[in-house]
């Protein structure tokens, strides 16, 4: 509510009151003493002039203090707390001005503290991995962070745009989830990656007397994969423990049986012992392979020398090598990356593809490097592709089902992702391409 300034100030009221009291008092004296009106008017005029001068002198400090307080309160109204009042007389107005200065200093400090918190909050929200989107009641975007703009495939800020304009390049699944406006999970199918699982949380807020809606989108793909792999690792550790407990005594008993049968001339018994020994060795190697997946160590990052790495791989497998290499340094665990590519090249050779159809490519992207292995085999059906990265799943008679699962574990330990794509020639499947994205790291993040 706006309050109008009174037409007569406090000092003016004091002066008017003094003049009225003086006038009434002199008139009463004139009447009692029967002073002629000609003399009375002169005396009254002189008295009023003197009283005005005396009152002005007395009220000058009051008027100065009140003017200072008025100016200070106008600054408060405008949100300005840095000005200090210079009225310091030893009276009640001086005390009020001192109290005003102390209040202004306290408010100034709190305003500065709130400003710093807003800057910190803005920095946190802008760099948050969760996509944040705030819209008002007119469906106009009020705030969006970097993750939200990346999710919406927008290269510029979208504040001030309508929701429909901001979602022009967004995935269809995302648009449907936002329009539905309900908390829950939804999937985004991207041709460049595997299907992504997202969680949407919403909230209603009243800001500047206007309803706003906040959308918080969090990608759960990596977290779900991590939990799934953690369960598989626990199962593998339990199975490995039980198998190792059985393999030790079996190997010892086999050795004892071979010693006891040395004097017997029984070829069939020797074949039985040889078969048991071969199966024990195979089972031991089998358990060790699963143990490698269950106990994958954290990657030790170092700068990758791509030509040297490709030369080492070429000594083990035949393939068409890349024609060029990224100029931006890439940091990863060299041994784990080599194991990853060995597994992918091994799968490419086992796909039935000819050697000249197996290609290894390394391409530089804005945020990382993409390594792809392409073969000319039969590709994968939808069912096989959906389960190819799951531990124990294999279409090979002698396969362990851990090759691609171990590859994905290595890639995700480097904060990257692995995806599978069929290669088409016209309308027929003409091979499989496995893409591995590895983000760039600075040398300060490497582990010695």
Describe it.
The chain is built from twelve helices and eleven strands. It is of the alpha+beta class. The protein has four domains: 111 residues, no CATH class; 93 residues, PAS domain (Beta-Lactamase); 72 residues; 144 residues, Heat Shock Protein 90, CATH 3.30.565. Helix 7 packs antiparallel against helix 8. It is elongated.
Assign the CATH topology of the largest domain: Heat Shock Protein 90
Terminal-residue CA separation: 67 Å
Mean pLDDT: 78
**Overall CATH architecture of the largest domain:** 2-Layer Sandwich
Q: What profile does the largest beta sheet have?
A: 5 strands, antiparallel
Q: CATH H-level name of the largest domain... which superfamily?
A: Histidine kinase-like ATPase, C-terminal domain
Name the beta content range. Answer: 15-25%
Number of strands: 11
What's the structural blueprint in terms of helices and strands?
Blueprint: H1 10-33, H2 37-77, H3 92-126, E1 131-136, E2 141-144, H4 146-151, H5 163-166, H6 172-180, E3 184-188, E4 196-207, E5 210-219, H7 221-260, H8 267-294, E6 302-303, H9 306-314, E7 331-332, H10 334-350, E8 359-364, E9 368-374, H11 382-387, H12 403-413, E10 417-425, E11 428-439
Helix pairs in contact: 1-2, 2-3, 7-8, 10-12
